[in-house]
Design brief:
Elements: H1 18-21, H2 33-45, E1 57-62, H3 71-80, E2 88-94, E3 97-102, H4 104-113, E4 116-117, E5 120-121, E6 123-127, E7 139-146, H5 151-159, H6 163-171, E8 175-177, E9 180-181, E10 194-197, E11 201-211, E12 217-224
Antiparallel strand pairs: 1-3, 1-6, 2-3, 4-5, 7-12, 8-9, 8-10, 10-11, 11-12
Helix pairs in contact: 5-6
Length: 225
Amino acid sequence: MWGGYVGSVRRRAVFLPEWMAEGEISEQPLFSEEREKAFLCLLESFGMLSELSEHVCTLRLTGSGYEELSHRDWLGALMALGVKRNVLGDILVQSSGALLFCEPVCGAYISSELKSAGRDRVYAELTETDLDLSSEQKFESISTTIAAPRLDGVVKALCSISREQAQRAVSGGLCEINYYPEKEPDVRLLPGDILSVRGYGKFVIDSASDETRRGRIKLLARKYL
C-alpha cells in the first residue's frame, strides 16, 4: 500500500509477483510503516523506484504567504475544481503551503487549473517525490487491558465507554478496521490494524498479546491527534 510517502493514510494498492513479495514484506502488517520501507528497499534493489511516479505524483501547493490555509481550505479548493476525492491522496499542510499526493493525470489537471484556496491566490506545480519524507503525525499513547482483542472490547477500552455503548457503536456502523466498515463485535484486532470509531477518533493497534497476572491482555495503541 503506497501513498507517496512513508506513513501516508490514503494509499494505492500495489500488487507484486509472489517471488518479489516473499520474506520481509509479507511478514509486516499491511498498513505498517515497516512494510512500506521494505517495499521501497525492494523496488530500489530492482532499480524500479522511478516507476512509483507512474502511480502517485506529488504536487507542491503554494499560497501568497499572507493567509494561513488549512487542510479544509486546500481540500475545498480541489473539490471546487470537480476533482473526486478518490483520486486524491493525503494533503500535508506545511508552513509554506502543502504537499498533495494524487493520480498523475489528476495532478496535471490540478497544476494547470488551481488558482485559489480559501481567500488566497495559490498555484500548484508538480515536484519530485521525496522518498525520504515521512509522516509527522502526532499520537497519544494508550496502555490499557482487555479481556480479549475483540472489536467491542477494544472499542470500549480505547474510547472509555461502557460495553453497551461499544456494542451499539459496532452494530450501528460507526467502526472501521483498516478503513472498511465492520459490524461484527467478535472480530479480532491484530497489531498494525487501524481502528476508526466515528465520534471518538482513530487508533493504531500496536500490540495485544501479553497477559497480566489476572489473565487480562495488555493492549498498547496510539490515538491520532
